[in-house]
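Hi all, long-time lurker, first post. I run a small reading group and we've been trying to get comfortable going from sequence to structure in the token notation. Rather than ask abstract questions, I figured I'd post a concrete chain and ask someone more experienced to write out its structure so we can walk through it together at our next meeting. Sequence below, copied exactly:
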Amino acid sequence: SNAEISDIIDKLKDESIKKQLKESDNPIVIPYRITQKKVDFDGEVVMPKGCNLERYQKNPIFVLEHGYTSRSYLPLGKALTDTFEITEDYMDVDIMYDTFSGDEEAERIANKAMNGFINSVSPGFIVDLSDETKIMDNQSGDTIWEWTLYEISQAYIPSNMDAVRRKFFFDFMK
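-- Answer (accepted) --
Happy to help. Here is the structure in token form:
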């Protein structure tokens, strides 16, 4: 809704991003769950509250598949860092796709995400502190207590199956 979209824009401190979103004909911002406290595909548990955002906030890139595609690390967009919400159980953030610069592939991926053909994301991070403590049923890997985020990726198959979009926010002009 327009009220929700206005709320997102109002949360932002960066005036240039606010201006981009207000003036764009087709901005796409989608809120995602970046991680959730649960056993992931690797049998590990990543603790959301253990995330160090300092490095990421200086360059909040959003790439495709951790840069493992032919696209390399050319960003699809960026995280709106003012919208991070981190609790004991999850980490959420709103992602703004680059629909401003004429990047056709970024626009194509953004449209696939907006229309529900790609629903998931994955954090790229460095483990700072982990051990073999098992805190959840069916956990076979480590518990990652502290970690440094360095990128967020649009992922076709996420390691954490709850790392998905929460709802749509698009068409700021209507």
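A couple of things your group might point at:
The helical segments are 2-11, 15-23, 54-58, 104-114.
DSSP finds four helices and nine strands in the chain.
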